Amino acid sequence: MKNKLKFTWDVLKLPVIAVIVGFIVGAVCILIAGSNPATAYAALFRGSLGSIPSFGETLYKVTPILLTGLSAAIGFRCGLFNIGSEGQYVMASIVTVAGAWYLQGLPSFILVPLLLMLGILSGGVWGGIAGILKANMGINEVISTIMLNWIALYLSNYLVRTVLNPSTILGDISKGHTVIVPDAARLTKFKEFIPAFGYSSAHTGILIALAAAVGMWFLLFKTTLGYEIRGVGLNPQAAEYGGINNKKNTFLAMFISGGLAGLAGSVQILGLVYMVNQSTELPGYGFTGLSVALVGLSHPLGCIPAALLFGILDNGSRQMQLSGIPKEITKIISAVILVFVAGSLLMKYVPEYFEKRKMKRSGVDGGKQASAGAGKEGI
Amino acid sequence: MNTAIILAVVASAIRLATPLLLAALGGVFSERSGVVNIGLEGIMIFGAFFSVWFTHITGNAWIGVVAAILFGVIAASLLAVISINLKGNQIIAGTAINLLAAALTAFLLELIWHRSGSTPICPDMLTSNPFKFLEAIPILGDLCKQFTPFVYLSFMLVFVTYYILWKTPWGLHVRAVGEHPRAADTVGIGVYKTRWTCVLISGVLAGLAGACLSVGTVGLFREGMVAGKGFIALAAMVFGKWHPVGALSGCLLFGLCSAIQIQAQSFGIDAPSEFLAMVPYLATIIVLIGVVGKAVAPKADGTPYEKD
Fold first, then answer.
1. How far apart are CA A127 and CA B204, in angstroms?
2. Per the CB < 8 Å rule, is B104 touching A335?
3. Bridge-partner residues for A104, per DSSP?
4. SS3 state at A139
5. Closest residue to A378, CB basis, from B106, B232, B299
6. How does pLDDT run across A104-118, given as a tens digit for each residue?
């Protein structure tokens, strides 16, 4: 029992300390701004968890970042850095709006799942491109996905301005956003069947995200595909030697990762936004997703509390602002958490480290020499 | 008429390329030594903010530039500590710097000026041509009229960077550390020290790039004003195959595409501006794929080095 507790603490130490440090730095900033940290944090939690509607609003904020968190997590598990969740999110959003518009007329129970599938597929394809580039040409996925993000953004802007603009479809004046998703394609709001949710925007998307988390846990830890993906992440050479196809699994991991980011886009569009705006900036959910995955230790179920944390920070900031405290504090807290996670030998949780530790644990000098020779100079 | 348009486009392309070039050169230093610097974006945000703040305090934009460099170095040292000493993940460290920069500057903006969005206009800017005598040259003079001190500085730094990295012993050390740190270590090159120096240099350059955007262009700081330019700089550097002159060509390509977008109306071109904006990114992917000579990153780029 004691051992088990110690093990749990060992695993959870890093994110817990990171969060505490984040809140301490946040408190210092609040003091600098001339306010009382206790009042500020009380406002933060009251604003995000204080009532059912405010909790509902938090759930709404959690939805996309839980999905992009899962997207980042599966990438990490395969040793991949999917910075491209942003672009995959954007592609899925625009495809979802297009699909919702052109397929309207279908009954809701067919249309909604179909659109979600379309979102997964378009995000998956966008991630899959980076996967193919990585698997077949060895192109670093960080670089290729940065390019793909901006290409996606401009493609989306083009479609918003032309093909999907209300001016083209409805003959309205030209607008900075697409046509609006018809009612039949929208996800149900919680308040429609639980009135207590009041003003909040919580919608069934959170259930989809939670299901995705459980699904990813099952995929990663209970299926052959998940085993292979983790194998590639832990040690590509060993995996290859053991008969696992690195290329195929790299592609599949990027495809699934992209699909999850795409699902985030779809769910966000069908849940509340209902359209895509022209934008000069990437939406940012992908980067938050990286934080979610890291604090969640790249474990699909760990992403749930992590996403909740970032959702609370995001949603509570408004209440803090009403109490006269700059809302940027919560962003500083998130950033500090990430700095801390990055700094505290984060490699512990990225696959390569497991490999090194295993070598170290096997202890003998021979193992050490082997790791010095092979492990260090460029994995 | 036509020459006027072409001159306008060229001048605007060069002006737009300048901040990218400064940051991209920072990327060249950092990545040649083996540290991926995704944090260029955040360092630029710091540079843009602190140059404006110190210009407001002192009334002298040059002091603002010095502040930008100083805070660029501080931000870069965070990346250096995490990625070199703590052997943390460089991509995460860079992302953290980006988020931190956006949050911290927005916070300070509110704290100092009690407003969000943007600062007031600076009392002093660096937006005019410092070399008046060049304006006497026909045609070229018209271009020079529109150049800021940053333009001259960035172009000069391309050759300085090339000279340092390819023509001096220390430059050879840097590239050795980026390719094969263990071998470099064996012959007595301090891997950590070299990487630290390079990351700090990238902080100087990206800080300058930020100052170029604020005091060197619009004379104020606006939230979101960097808007991905750090990532563009990174793309330009990859397009230029981790080489300063290549990075210059990448930045000019990005600058030209934006300039044409801005001036497209006077050209009467109907090409959708979004596709023009996309061109440099597509070009970078094409370069990566190796259609026109493969771009290969320094071998140890992104890998922490552990001493025995």
1. 34
2. yes
3. A106
4. coil
5. B299
6. 889 989 999 999 999
Structure tokens at B162: 């090339």
**Does residue B279 belong to the interface with chain A, where contact is any CB pair within 8 Å?**
no
Position B94 in a domain: yes
Does residue A219 register a pLDDT over 50? yes
From CA B3, how far away is CA B9, in angstroms rounded?
Answer: 10
Say how many CB pairs under 8 Å bridge A and B: 157
Q: How far apart are CA A284 and CA A171, in angstroms?
A: 32
Predicted confidence at residue A372, as pLDDT, reads 35
Any idea what DSSP says for residue B134? G
Residue B125 contacts A where some CB pair is shorter than 8 Å: no
* Within-domain flag for B241: yes
**Dihedral sign from CA coordinates of A297, A298, A302, A308:** positive
Q: What is the pTM of this model?
A: 0.88
Is there a contact between B87 and A345 if contact means CB atoms under 8 Å apart?
A: yes
Q: Which of B92, B282, B299 sits opposite A341 (nearest CB)?
A: B92
Task: Tell me the H-state helices in chain A.
Answer: 2-32, 37-49, 52-77, 85-102, 108-137, 141-161, 166-169, 190-193, 205-222, 224-234, 236-241, 246-268, 285-295, 303-322, 328-343, 351-361, 365-370
Contacts of A33 in chain B (CB under 8 A): 107, 110-111
In a domain, B308, yes or no: no
C-alpha B178/C-alpha B29 separation (Å) is 10
What CATH number does the domain containing B220 carry?
A: 1.10.3470
Return the amino acid letter for A3.
N
In a domain, B259, yes or no: yes
The residue of chain A with its CA nearest to that of B111 is: A33
For B112-121, write each residue's pLDDT tens digit: 988 878 888 8
Q: Are B239 and B284 in contact (CB under 8 A)?
A: yes
Instruction: Give the start-to-end residue ranges of the domains of chain A.
Output: 63-329
% of chain A surpassing 90 pLDDT: 50
* Host domain of residue B65: 2-289
Q: Cβ contact (<8 Å) for A346 and B274?
A: no
CA distance A15 to chain B (A): 14
Alpha carbon A255 to chain centroid, angstroms = 14
Among A66-75, A273-282, B288-297, which is the least confidently predicted range?
B288-297
Are B92 and A143 inside 8 Å of each other by CB?
A: no
| Angle in degrees, 0-180, between the axes of helices B149-167 and B191-213, rounded to the nearest 10 | 160
Overall number of domains in chain B? 1
The CATH number of domain A63-329, selected from 1.10.3470, 3.30.2020, 2.20.130, 2.60.98: 1.10.3470
* Cα–Cα distance, A263 to A74 (Å, whole number): 14
Is the minimum CB–CB distance between B282 and chain A shorter than 8 Å?
yes
SS3 state of residue A189: strand
- What's the number of CA atoms in the CB half-sphere (13 Å) around residue B32? 30
Query: Is 70 exceeded by the pLDDT of residue A293?
Result: yes
Query: Residues A179-204: what's their mean pLDDT?
Result: 87
Q: Quick one: which of B73, B28, B59, B50 has its CA closest to B211?
A: B50
**What does the pLDDT read at residue A115?**
96
Nearest CA in chain A to B116: A326
CA closest to B185 among chain A residues: A377
Read off the pLDDT band of A344 (50, 70, 90): low
